[in-house]
Specification:
- The complex is a heterodimer of chains A (about 350) and B (about 50).
- By secondary structure, chain A is of the alpha/beta class.
- Chain A contains ten helices and 15 strands.
- With about 50 residues, chain B is largely without helices or strands.
- A two-stranded antiparallel ribbon of chain B has the order 1-2.
- The chains are: A alpha/beta (about 350), B little secondary structure (about 50).
- The interface between A and B is large, with 49 and 27 residues.
Chain lengths: ~350, ~50
């Protein structure tokens, strides 16, 4: 008797714990590392194993098998010949464009200009996030939203907008019917209470968190895990944050992300395509969690988003930073989550980082 | 074909996608088409940035 996990079900082991998750339905659970070892060997014959075990261990093994069946994570196969009929087909669907994600930090509506828009179009960018700096007032944010229609002819699939909450801004968005022909995902931070609205092509999320742009980025937590098959596969071969991402910070500097230290020129005199072809632009694109210190021993490494901007040795002038993300409070060696922001060593580093 | 899909745990409708060899020529529907049975919206499969 053999156990065959469904194609969408993946297992990952860390230094102390292991997890099993289903990329189709978002199921995720910790499993004992012993169980991980059994599941890793697809040719494990459970009939033979059962005969070899003591009564206590047999009960544990039966619990393991029942866990898989009752949670619909896999099924029983009777023979090895039958097992071989099920092929593992799970391939990363690569987007044909050179860039997919574009983050634009802005302080007024003039930052959404014709030159930037034509470059978004020409580079075939799919996802755009406009992050409005927190000091921008509601009147100016509305003026920014009124320029979003200029992106209608781009091939964007979605535009994400992050701005500071204001009652007048919420009222404006609620009453606006034709801001864009694109799907808009708007997050208003620093609100009084959490609210979620769905206006058809606009999803509006009001949150109470205060967000500082760009320094508030890089927060790693359980709620930010992504249980998608393609993300899992991308994480195994590429950097889960920076791969195919480009950005312009609020001063017009082109970077991998607005918080990264290296600039590849300013949008006033450098095109996004020129920046893309800079020898260092893609240096982090293939740095996976398997090569990042501490993360490589973490069971969440393929469902977690990396951060190369805020790291535990950040601020140091090094060629390739593979240290752990600073704003992650998980210790894979103890299996304990802690609040990273009250860790005295991390607080000290946060002060050093500009 | 199913009319609804589940992405990142949030149910969304899908925006129209025309099969096309040239990726730059792929166009998406306007708002007026969103409620059509043929329309599809694909939302970002990963986070743009980790702000909270």
């Amino acid at each position: 008797m053999f156990i065959k996990l469904f194609n969408s079900v993946k297992i990952t082991a860390g230094a102390k714990n292991a997890i099993i998750f289903d990329t189709d339905n978002g199921f995720v659970s910790a499993i004992p590392k012993d169980f991980f070892i059994l599941l890793s060997n697809e040719k494990q014959n459970y009939t033979i194993l059962r005969q070899e075990l003591e009564a206590d261990d047999l009960e544990t093994l039966n619990e393991y098998i029942d866990f898989i069946i009752s949670n619909r994570l896999g099924f029983i196969v009777n023979t090895q010949k039958e097992l071989q009929q099920f092929k593992n087909k799970f391939t990363f669907n690569e987007n044909p464009t050179n860039l997919e994600y574009f983050i634009l930090d802005i302080k007024d509506e003039r930052d959404i200009d014709g030159i930037t828009i034509s470059q978004i179009q020409n580079l075939g960018i799919r996802y755009l996030q406009i992050r409005v700096l927190e000091q921008v007032n509601a009147y100016d944010i509305i003026n920014i939203l009124l320029r979003i229609f200029l992106l209608n002819n781009c091939d964007l699939q979605e535009i994400s907008i992050v701005a500071k909450y204001d009652d007048s801004l919420l009222k404006f968005i609620k009453e606006s019917k034709n801001l864009s022909s694109k799907f808009l995902d708007i997050t208003l931070h620093s609100g009084d209470e959490k609210k979620l609205f769905d206006f058809g092509y606009i999803r509006l999320n009001v949150i109470t968190n205060k967000i500082s742009i760009p320094s508030g980025c890089g927060c790693i937590s359980k709620k930010n895990f992504i249980l998608s098959g393609n993300f899992y596969l991308e994480s195994k071969v590429h950097n889960s944050c920076l791969y195919k991402k480009i950005s312009i910070d609020s001063d017009g500097n082109i970077r991998n992300c607005p918080s990264m230290p290296q600039s590849f020129g300013n949008i006033k005199d450098t095109t996004l395509e020129d920046a893309l072809h800079h020898k260092d632009f893609k240096k982090y694109w293939n740095i996976t969690k398997d090569s990042i210190e501490i993360c490589k021993d973490c069971e969440f490494r393929y469902i977690c988003t990396d951060c190369r901007a805020y790291t535990e040795i950040g601020g140091n002038n090094i060629d390739l930073d593979v240290s752990k993300p600073l704003k992650c409070g998980y210790n894979p060696y103890s299996g304990i989550w802690e609040d990273w922001s009250i860790n005295p060593l991390k607080k000290r580093l946060l002060i050093i980082i500009p | 074909m199913k009319k609804k899909i589940q992405l990142k745990g949030i149910e969304v409708s899908l925006q129209e996608w025309k099969e096309c060899g040239n990726v730059k020529a792929v166009k998406y529907s306007s708002n007026s088409n969103i409620k059509s049975d043929k329309t599809k919206i694909f939302r970002s499969p990963k986070y743009y940035s980790l702000l909270y």
